[in-house]
Fold this protein.
Amino acid sequence: MVLVDNELALTPIAGKSGKAYMGTYPDGGRVFVKMNTTPILAGLAREQIAPQLLWSRRLPDGNVMSGQEWLSGAILTPNDMSKASDQYFNAFASVEASDDSVG
């Protein structure tokens, strides 16, 4: 299934949320698109935990679509996460303590 708006074709990405898409522009450029993301996304991007937030758009139905830089990567396993848990914990704690994430 492919959803299309005027400038962006959206192809669903497998996952538990059902709200993630690969967006493809007519020129072939790609962007990671997520529906109704958490407001903390900007802080995660600033701390380089998440890809850069490129844009955000409120849709006529009230949903918010956010576009992030497309990066090739790998899915982290529970083992990967446990190896780096202190690093992730400290980064998330930093974002949560930031005045920018309060809103």
About this structure: Helices lie at 41-46, 78-83, 85-97.
